[in-house]
C-alpha cells in the first residue's frame, strides 16, 4: 500500500497506459481521479476500476480537455474539494499523428503541440500551484516516449512534442523541488494499445506496407522480444509516485524493453 490515501489525478486515464496505471494505483491504496476528454470512456473505466463494488468512494471521474485552461482549473478545484488536495499527477493525455515533413499541416502541428506540450504544461502548472498552496509537496509524472529521444522521418511533430516533454520535465523539476514537488517522466517504447491500429494504418499508407506488418516488425525489433503492454508501466509509475523515489528528480525513465539506452 505504497500510495495509501494519496490522491492521484491521471489525465487520459480512461484507457491504455493511463487506465493500467490507475488500476495499479488503486491496488496501492490511492484515491483516483480519471480525467479524460471522453465521458463514455470515463464511465467505462470507473466501472472497471470498481468491479468489486468496494472502491467507489476512492474514485472520481472528470471530463477534461487539457487544451482548455478553465477546465483544468475547474478540475483542480473540484478534486481539491472532493478529496482535500492532489498528491500525484500523471500527465498522460496525448495524441499521435504522422506525415512526411513536406506534408505536415499547420492543423496537425497545432493539434499535437496543443495537447502533448501545452496541455501537459498547464495541467502541471495548475496542479503544482495547488500542491504549493497546500504545502505537502507531491509527485508529478509526465509521460513522454522513446520518440522524444530521437527523430523519425514520418513522425517529426510527435517526436518534437515528446522531446519537449522531456525538457519540460527537467526544467519544471529543478524549479519545483524546492517546494517538495518531484517531477519525473516515463518514456514508453512501442505499446500494444488500440491506438496502434491507427498508427499501423498510417505506416501502411506512407510506407506502402500491408496492414499489420509494421506492428509485427516493431514488436520483433524490441530487444525484450515483444511490444510493451499497458501493465508494463504500472511498476515505474508507482515507484515515481511513492516515497521509494524520494531522491529521484528530473529524470525520464525509459520503459521500453531495451529499445533505447541512456
Task: Describe this structure in a few short sentences.
Helices cover 45% and strands 15% of the residues. It is of the alpha/beta class and 262 residues long. It has two domains: 7-189 and 229-254, NAD(P)-binding Rossmann-like Domain (Rossmann fold), CATH 3.40.50; 192-227, no CATH class.
Topology:
Elements: E1 7-11, H1 16-27, E2 31-36, H2 39-49, E3 59-63, H3 69-83, E4 88-91, H4 106-134, E5 138-143, H5 156-176, E6 181-188, H6 195-207, H7 213-221, H8 234-241, E7 252-255
Parallel strand pairs: 1-2, 1-4, 2-3, 4-5, 5-6, 6-7
Helix pairs in contact: 1-8, 3-4, 4-5
Descriptive report:
It is a single chain. The longest helix has 29 residues, at 106-134. The model has no long low-confidence stretch (mean pLDDT 97). Helix content is 45%, strand content 15%. The protein has two domains: 7-189 and 229-254, NAD(P)-binding Rossmann-like Domain (Rossmann fold); 192-227, no CATH class. It contains eight helices and seven strands. By secondary structure, it is α/β, with parallel strands linked by helices. It has helices at 16-27, 39-49, 69-83, 106-134, 156-176, 195-207, 213-221, 234-241, and strands at residues 7-11, 31-36, 59-63, 88-91, 138-143, 181-188, 252-255. A seven-stranded parallel β-sheet has the order 3-2-1-4-5-6-7, with helices on both faces. Helix 1 (16-27) links the parallel strand 1 (7-11) and strand 2 (31-36).
